[in-house]
TrEMBL record:
GO cellular component labels: cytoplasm
Record-given protein name: Nucleoside-diphosphate-sugar epimerase
GO molecular function: aldehyde dehydrogenase (NAD+) activity
Domain NAD-dependent epimerase/dehydratase, first and last residues per copy: 9-225
Domain of life according to the entry: Bacteria
InterPro entries with a match to the protein in the record: Epimerase_deHydtase, NAD(P)-bd_dom_sf, NAD(P)-dependent_oxidoreduct
């Protein structure tokens, strides 16, 4: 177990979805949590989670800032990413290099929320901890390089990578669920189907992911110096389960349309979101499931909030549930 001083975690990206959720989960388990933000005062005012987080000023692109913020921390949660998929080739690797330097200096464990970008889903339908990482996408190649650097550093700074599917649920801002399937229109009038017909997809309920990170960190004696752990999450076998859960929670059927992947491909040469989204299309066209064997070996079982309960919480966070007192009409 950690000593009292070492049970301090620096969360890079604490103002984001996964970073904020992990910060809350650690606070609930008695950790001291420090969040670094470019504008600490604004971050503190905007924080709506559990009280107790300590905000410090800093930029993940500045090594001196990261090293100063990490002083005295036993864990560094690297949950920071360039916004909107932009500038990955320029920012992702320098940021992880700064985190590695800070972890080495203080002997801290690095925690990385892992992605499925590392795989070519046409070749790897089931992602195990030792599955070949040969992605076709630029973002995937960057993530592979990032994890390789972490593995090389793990002799002096242990590493925990928790790989999960697409985040959804309270706190999962700008996710494919909230921005893609649900969209911004209110009231909700239709659902957007993201997967190719019949293609399965892995979804990760954000509170479950965060609590799993916290549980793993509370058992450091079980972790290897370099630990890749997969979280199966909610497996939507053919792309219809998530829309059905939305309809069940709302008590009504909704028209459905397909996401315009063709438009992303057509607009890809112009850059921006279309280019970045088009690169991810294979992840929505081929099934890619995550193996959780190692997670079950470490914790006994995978934490799974019942899907209906999770969906109600997710839609409530988006302001989409029926007004209080109005029971949903069963979908039939």
């Amino acid at each position: 177990m950690y000593g009292q001083e070492a049970k301090t975690a620096l969360v890079l990206g604490a103002t984001g979805g996964i970073g904020g959720a992990v910060a809350e989960a650690l606070l609930a388990r008695g950790w001291r949590v420090r969040g670094m933000a470019r504008d600490a005062a604004t971050a503190a005012r905007g924080w709506t989670g559990a009280p107790g987080i300590e905000w410090v000023q800093g930029d993940a692109m500045r090594r001196a800032d990261v090293m100063a913020a990490a002083r005295g921390a036993g864990v560094i949660v690297h949950a920071v990413n360039p916004p909107g998929y932009r500038d990955w080739d320029r920012l992702v690797l320098p940021m992880i290099d700064n985190t590695i330097a800070a972890a080495r200096a203080g002997g801290a464990r690095i925690v990385l929320p892992g992605t499925v970008y590392n795989y070519d889903p046409a070749q790897v339908p089931l992602a195990r901890e030792d599955s070949p990482q040969q992605p076709a996408s630029r973002k995937g190649r960057i993530r592979v390089a990032l994890e390789r650097r972490l593995e090389e550093a793990s002799g002096r700074a242990p590493v925990l990578i928790l790989r999960a599917g697409d985040y959804w649920g309270p706190g999962a801002r700008s996710s494919w669920f909230s921005a893609g399937m649900i969209g911004e229109g209110r009231p909700l009038r239709r659902l957007t189907l993201l997967t190719r017909s019949g293609a399965g997809h892995s979804w990760a309920y954000l509170p479950d992911v965060a609590e799993t990170v916290a549980r793993l960190l509370d058992a450091p004696e079980r972790l290897r110096p370099f630990e890749r752990v997969g979280m199966e999450g909610l497996w939507d076998e053919d792309g219809t389960r998530m829309p059905a859960l939305v309809e069940e929670a709302l008590g009504r059927r909704l028209p459905r349309k397909r996401f315009p992947w063709w438009a992303m491909r057509a607009l890809e040469p112009f850059g921006g979101f279309a280019r970045e989204a088009a690169e991810l299309r294979p992840l929505w066209s081929h099934p890619l499931r995550i193996d959780n064997t190692r997670l079950r070996a470490l914790l006994g079982e995978e934490l799974r909030t019942p899907p209906s309960e999770a969906m109600r919480a997710a839609l409530a966070a988006l302001g989409l549930l029926e007004p209080a007192g109005e029971a949903p009409v069963p979908v039939g």
